[in-house]
Amino acid sequence: MKKLFGLILVLTFAVVLAACGNGNKSGSDDKKITVGASPAPHAEILEKAKPLLEKKGYELDIKTINDYTTPNKLLDKGEIDANYFQHTPYLNTEKKDKGYKIVSAGDVHLEPMAVYSKKYKSLKELPKGATVYVSNNPAEQGRFLKFFVDAGLIKIKKGVKIEDAKFSDITENKKDIKFNNKQSAEFLPKIYQNEDADAVIINSNFAIEQKLNPKKDSIAVESAKDNPYANLIAVKEGNQDDKKIKALIEVLQSKDIQDFINEKYNGAVIPAK
């Protein structure tokens, strides 16, 4: 009986120790923020935010991810606290297609998309039958088309909002422009450098990695005014009000970070607020 009682005491003590250990781990996790992010400018901006978050008592762990599918997978599985690589239209498409329970915690910056060409100096110079390479991201088809609608080269169906437009909504294509959307966004700068197309539309984060500046090197750049494509911090639904997420958003929307973005990227990236 004494042996049994002693064994119970030992087991009880072990359980208490384990519980204490888990409690400490939980407390540590509350002060650590793990974010999956594209290399540029997202991870660079997060690096600048690190010391600002440290002052608030938080450790920022940045996981650099080079594609547009992995960050939401990791977030949905709970392997990271947040991700930073996408805009609202893309997030909405991911949620619709894959059933993710993911929401925006706040906008941080805008990357003006641009059209690049080594052969022509404007969209209107593009020849009949020109080939334009764009990414295979269906959420951005309207964004691609807006360049050509604004230039008067194509028309889309009446009643279709430009941000919702698809290639199938084109009703008039004066120069019979061919849109090739079979490539992932990260490969587009190489297509541009190799002159494999008449023009290429490149996301600014990938352009920046290749030392391209949308304002200086492109033949057309989108306007920031009323632009719905601000890059955001995404979190699992229900976590947007967590203290550490609010601290992250507060820092990323601070004047310190806004000034950093303006100074470092010279218009290639601009603050969302």
Write a compact overview of the structure shown.
The chain is an alpha/beta fold.
Descriptive account of the structure:
It is found in: Membrane. Pfam families: Lipoprotein_9. Residues 1-18 form the signal peptide. Helices cover 41% and strands 23% of the residues. It has a six-stranded mixed β-sheet with strand order 2-1-3-12-4-13, sandwiched between helices. It has 273 residues and is α/β, with parallel strands linked by helices. The chain has two domains: 33-112 and 229-271, D-Maltodextrin-Binding Protein, domain 2 (3-Layer(aba) Sandwich); 114-221, D-Maltodextrin-Binding Protein, domain 2 (3-Layer(aba) Sandwich), CATH 3.40.190.10. The model is unreliable at 1-25 (pLDDT under 50). Helix 2 links the parallel strand 1 (32-37) and strand 2. Helix 2 (39-55) crosses helix 9 (243-252). The chain has ten helices and 13 strands. It has helices at residues 2-30, 39-55, 70-77, 88-98, 141-150, 188-193, 204-209, 214-217, 243-252, 255-265, and strands at residues 32-37, 59-64, 82-87, 102-110, 114-116, 131-135, 154-156, 170-173, 178-183, 199-202, 220-221, 231-236, 270-271. It is globular, with a radius of gyration of 23 Å.
The largest sheet is: 6 strands, mixed
| CATH topology annotation of the largest domain | D-Maltodextrin-Binding Protein, domain 2
Strand proportion, as a percent range, falls in 15-25%
Query: Mean pLDDT, as a whole number?
Result: 91
SSE ordering = HEHEHEHEEEHEEEHEHHEEHHE
**Helical content band:** 40-55%
- Termini distance? 70 Å
| Low-pLDDT residue spans | 1-25
Alpha plus pi helix count: 10
Q: What top-tier CATH class of the largest domain fits best?
A: Alpha Beta
Q: What is the count of distinct domains? A: 2
The order of strands across the largest sheet is: 2-1-3-12-4-13
Total strands: 13
Gyration radius from CA atoms, angstroms: 23 Å
What's the shape?
globular
CATH superfamily of the largest domain: Periplasmic binding protein-like II
CATH architecture of the largest domain: 3-Layer(aba) Sandwich
Class by SSE composition: alpha/beta
